[in-house]
Design a protein that fits this description.
mainly alpha
């Protein structure tokens, strides 16, 4: 595939992420993606002939964007890890919001499409391993129980951050992400030794 085709493909995938985030599963159509990408009608269908192909393209793009966001050196201590996690959560509530909303829409679609659930499963499962690695790099307990608690707490925070309801954010501690991630690490690492 030449660079021009790859650029257009990426533009269409980015548009599909935006459409899914804004309009939900029912709003994800080839025509809506064409309009969002500013390309002639029929372009998205040429690249992604079916709705399933369009959903797959969104899933792949969300994964690429997430991996790019998480690339970088591992944290050297607990404070660096807390700052890294706070930064990831800020991204969810800020510039990464469309990607995260689209991903959550994909998860909902996957309840009706087993092939999509199979595609998303390694993405979600990889967070448990990644968080164990980050805990280990920071010199913190990194056993399966700790990694699970950290991963599930972070995943559980995402809907609250996306909704942005001030009462829920304050009640959960998500109104101060730096404090939230420091306290979360203290809580999940309590009772385990590195």
């Amino acid at each position: 595939m030449n660079q021009g085709n790859q650029d257009r493909r990426d533009r269409l995938r980015d548009a599909a992420v935006a459409v899914l985030a804004e309009a939900g599963g029912r709003g994800l159509t080839h025509r809506a993606v064409d309009a969002a990408a500013g390309v002639p009608t029929g372009t998205a269908k040429n690249y992604f002939p079916t709705r399933d192909a369009l959903l797959r393209a969104v899933a792949e793009r969300c994964l690429e964007q997430y991996l790019a966001l998480t690339a970088g050196p591992p944290p050297g201590d607990a404070e660096q890890l807390a700052a890294l996690l706070a930064g990831l959560l800020r991204n969810v509530a800020g510039p990464g919001r469309p990607r995260m909303v689209a991903y959550m829409e994909l998860q909902t679609e996957s309840t009706r499409r087993p092939w999509l659930a199979a595609l998303l499963d390694p993405i979600g499962a990889s967070d448990f391993t990644a968080h164990a690695h980050l805990l280990r790099a920071a010199g913190l307990p990194s056993g399966p129980r700790t990694a699970r608690a950290l991963t599930l707490a972070l995943h559980g925070a995402i809907p609250h951050l996306l909704a942005g309801a001030p009462g829920a954010l304050a009640a959960s501690g998500l109104d101060d992400l730096d404090r939230f991630t420091r306290e979360l690490l203290t809580a999940v690492c309590a009772g385990e030794t590195p």
